[in-house]
């Protein structure tokens, strides 16, 4: 293991003046595995379906002409079935896998142009990865495992122990500092990995299916932990999962992948309420819509005509929470923001959401969605 002195990243501070614009910006990204991969992007084979591409060239386009931005402070979920390209895409962001073509920028800096030193700094300071198997060091205590990332950064012993201790408390492991990884449950081990990634205070946390090996209850605990940490810190997170309910629960926005391409990118509500094609529609078919779709999307034009605002629903409340309110009011309930009536919802509108009947009006357009990382966006899907 090499020990380096603490590098001073020339990165805009998380909350600093330079912190405008997206964190990651990706344009026309390709990763092709196979012989002479470079001929595929933009070439005569670029549009072939995966099977045919493999048969004719021996190549697999794991990531296929993908473009997106990751906004500052959002939880950006990359979702798709096994083999759709999620891991390859996220590894291309820090060049753990070398892209074949396209542009990847972090804070406006060209990642593909980075030399080895700069790349190392990117992975250590700016975009820390939390893996499914955390690779905890078995002979070290919890505290020393958490401090490990700081140690390879060259942070002094007293400081790294203090910071590690802080992170141990943050992820709910206080009292277990001196245990070894084998003396911890799976969920606790995940927390150690999370604390280790947090300890280096990265600008972005990248999670590669971190919870897929956990049993459902512990998994739910960990998901709630991530939501809590995100709410407290507002740190940008990129989260890979093949689990739709996890994506809906955690994501401010979700990129849904199929065969290396992004078939839809949107908020959970946009994806569930307005699937881009039959593939996405099929994917979200079993989602309880009332747990994802907001009152804002369900309401119709109207005014309660007074200052009482019966029901007084917030526009970002989910439909499930509006049902008892409408029952209680015994008629249309008012949707209110800043003391102003935005519209009304009634039994019919709520039932239409549950039944999957599209009643959208221009007022429900996706541009109305709350900004990522806002308090509203924290009203994430409850599935
Ligand atoms: N080193 C490699 N060489 C050849 N093909 C690869 C390589 N790595 C990945 N692939 C292929 O690229 C495609 C995307 O793989 P990737 O691991 O990114 O998918 P994934 O969505 O993360 O899948 P999973 O959920 O199973 O981890 C798959 O068809 C896979 O077989």
TrEMBL record:
PROSITE patterns named in the record: ABC_TRANSPORTER_1, ABC_TRANSPORTER_2
Domain ABC transporter stretches: 48-284
Keywords from the UniProt entry: ATP-binding, Nucleotide-binding, Transport
A Pfam family per the record: ABC_tran
Top-level lineage group: Bacteria
InterPro entries: AAA+_ATPase (IPR003593), ABC_osmolyte_uptake_ATP-bind (IPR051921), ABC_transporter-like_ATP-bd (IPR003439), ABC_transporter-like_CS (IPR017871), Gly-betaine_transp_ATP-bd (IPR005892), P-loop_NTPase (IPR027417)
Segments of this protein annotated with the region Disordered: 359-383
Cleavable signal peptide: none
Entry annotated with the keyword Transport: yes
Molecular-function GO terms, alphabetical: ATP binding
Family: Belongs to the ABC transporter superfamily.
PANTHER family in alphabetical order: GLYCINE BETAINE/PROLINE BETAINE TRANSPORT SYSTEM ATP-BINDING PROTEIN PROV, GLYCINE BETAINE_PROLINE BETAINE TRANSPORT SYSTEM ATP-BINDING PROTEIN PROV
Alphabetical list of NCBIfam families matching this protein: proV
The name this protein goes by in its record: Glycine betaine/L-proline ABC transporter ATP-binding protein
Native organism taxonomy: Bacteria, Bacillati, Actinomycetota, Actinomycetes, Kitasatosporales
